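DM between two lab members

TW: hey, do you still have the Holliday junction branch migration complex subunit RuvA entry open?
JB: yeah, one sec
JB: this one, 223 aa:
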Amino acid sequence: MIGRLAGRIDYRATDHVLLDVRGVGYLVYCTDRTLRALPAVGEHTALYTELLVREDLLQLFGFTTLIEKEWHRLLMSVQGVGAKASLAILGALGPEGVGRAIALGDWNSIKAAKGIGPKTAQRVVNELKDKAPEVMAMGTGPAPGVGVAEIVEEDVIEAIPTAQAASQPTGPGPQAEALSALTNLGYGPGEAAGAVAQAAGDAPEAETPALIRAALKLLAPKT
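TW: and the structure you got?
JB:
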């Protein structure tokens, strides 16, 4: 199983990139959102990957974060959701948006993805709602960048620092940290995930402390 690739982008198409990994080119299919986040042709990057194996097909899908890869795996487990539909959902909402929609039972947001009908959207929410807290808690750190650009030339591997690795954030995002804090306070994973998802939807740029405060207000007993 190929779980991660790091190399130079040789070319970009509308739905995939060709990644040169030490002289071997890998076609990696990505969402529009992921493609926009990748550097230009000729630069180095890293992607988490999922390999789809069929009788007549081997196809690699690439993701910038582990949480995006995990949502892709779970979405593919839902009846009627193939690789194309999964990428459409992730491309439309992003991994955090998918988590929010599923945690809140918002199948209309899922339905907004191209090619997703209401029955499929409802099935996604119903089948994955219990799994949303665990995936949301994974955080949103990107695939480790190519700290050194490995270039093979005349059988010598030269390590060349790249600016990209220094600029990539790591670690869990505010939603994951807020979810962890709420579960540590004794709230159930489902109710905590729903509150964090709603708070994040109301304030997408909020940092962890603000998300925790907003989620606690949502969880407070109504008088």
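TW: got it. Residues 4-64+142-153 form a domain with the OB fold (Dihydrolipoamide Acetyltransferase, E2P) fold (CATH 2.40.50.140). The longest strand covers residues 44-54.
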